[in-house]
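Pipeline run #58 for the internal structure catalog. This entry was flagged by the ingest filter as a single-chain record with no existing model, so it goes straight to prediction. Upstream metadata was stripped on purpose; only the residue string is passed forward. Reviewer on rotation: M.T. Logging verbosity set to normal.
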Amino acid sequence: MMRMKRIWISVLLAALAAGVVSCGKDDPAPVTPQKPEEKPEEKPVTPDPPATKVVDYDKYDLKDLAGKAGLKLGVSFTYGEYRDNPKVADILKRDFAAVTFGNEMKHDGIVQAGGAYNFSRADAMAGWAKACGNELFGHTLGWHSQQQRTYLNNVISQAAANNNASLLQKNWNFETGTLDGYDAHGFEVLQSLYDVFAGDYAAKAVADGATLTVDVAVEAGKPYDVSFWAKTLAREGTVKTTSGDGQEAQTDVTTEWRRYTATFTIESLGAFAFRLMAAKDVVIDNIRVLGEGGGGGQEPSGGDLDEVIDFEGLATGPLNSPDISVLNGPAYVSVTNESVHSGSLALKMDNSSGYAKDSWSIQVMTKSFPVTPGRTYRISWYGKASKAAGFQIDIRGDGGTKYYSTTYNQFPSMGTDWTYQSLDYTVTSGSELSIAFYGGFEAVTYYLDDIRITSVSGAASLPRRRAVSAFTASTSLRGELVNDAVGYVYRDWVYTMVGHFDVYGWDVVNETFSDWPVGEFRNAGNTTGENVFVWGRYFKSTKDWVDKAFAYATDALSRNGKEAILYLNDYDLETSPEKRQAYCNYVKGNPQVTGVGTQMHLNMKTTPDLKDMVVASLTDLKDTGRIVRISELDIQCSDLTAQADLYKFIFQKYLEIVPPAQRGGITIWGINDRDSWVKEENMPLLYQGVNYVRKPAWEAIYLYLCELTGQDPYKE
């Protein structure tokens, strides 16, 4: 029964379903309510992280970025870094537009101990840098350190502190700016930086046959050295010197300064002493007439003896002469041609190493000369020494068996230039006279030439006339006044360097002002230490030297058809406002200073607050109106991040403060910490380690320059 009921219900449900399906189109269909579809719960979407940007430090060359920013970026390096170092070459090509040599263009890097110039090392480095695409900066034409001291000290030791007392004429060097003291025809005063030997003035012949008559008093029977420095501004020239009694000597002169010397023995007095006749465009300076002179032109009473020992006709080497013999120390006495007064030979007594302990240990004596008791005889000679030293002479009678004089150890010291010296001796008894010279007095080398004995009273007869020796020419500065000699050497250095190197700028004078007293020009009193040579002490003043240095450099550029910015360079301009003020005051007063250089050696360890100082210094330097260059930048530190920030700050402020027309550039003073002058542990530079790894400071400069020039520093 129950089963039948279920069947019936099923049929009924089926019929109802069929009826629904068959309903008409217009009949509304019964709506069965639908349960809303449940949506899954939405969760917030986390976007994928953006790709990390990576700086490409090789994307641009650092020097190109600097160039786009209006900055010439330079670096210094030394010969040791240059030699066989491909890493340095790569860095120069990629990062820097200019180079400065750390040492190789300084005085002791070029000038040799003998005074010659050797450019081989600097030229090799300059060629290498040029091949790397770098311009060259010149460092330096004047500094108180790293001079060729051996050469300079030799020049000074051979120079004279003042003119010999036997210099007869005034205005011998024309430094009065006139021709006073001369009867001049066809000459004019030349004021020049280059075409004078020393000082500011010389005499120039403006016509062929121009004459300068030297206005001095001479005495008959006495020898005189006539010397002068000369050059010609033409292709060739001559100078002829005539004595008042008609003796003549003539010489050709060249386009380079040389000293010409001849010896005249005056036979009789004439209308003048000496006359120099020159071809047109010959320049003459530092005329000297050396001798006894000054006797009012009175002729001596004459005598019966006039003999000379001049060593001519002998062989070089051990002394072998009938006129003079060795009494003691034959190994140290010789005939030499290495230094002579006249002719080609002289006598040398070499005690340079102090072989002898007593003056008589090295001793020579002349032959005996016949003399007459009651007469006075003049013993004279020309002498010089390797350094100023004492000297001894003794006069002996009767062939040396008896002393008649008290001259032993009473003769003045001998100087370093050939000088005429004499001693009068009156014979009291005996018939012979000889002269002994002592060479063991000091550790020095003596030279003697033209030893002469002449009667100066007694029978009336003039000494016989000697032929005038030919002019000798020399470039030696021996015997010149020390200021003239050093001044000549310095000027030659400046003109030679400017002529030799092609550079875009020069440090003309480096470190001009002292640390204490602050702001003083350097002098011998405020500049101490090893290897110090203060050029200014040999000029009128250090300021005068600095003035001359810039004047020489300016003139040398003009003469060579070159252009370069001429810098005054100094340190501590950031940390010493007093020094900076003195520096800027000088620059503003000298228009030939066309550039100002601040070394900017900074030390964050000792002076942590440097930014305001940098700004103040750059501002003051800019206000001079000159080209501004950071010339030797390095920063000692203990924190590389802080160092990087300061490097970036300096670049930023330099470009902000210094107008484009005044920018001389920034030079980093060295490449790698391990080669720095302030030592590796102070981490001052942009690279470190044997592999020249770029430091944060390099990266900071790179990113700043990219930002400034609108360059994308990131990898693609």
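catalog note: The chain has three domains: 71-150+481-695, 162-299+463-479, 306-461.
catalog note: The chain has a mean pLDDT of 86.
status: ready for reviewer M.T.
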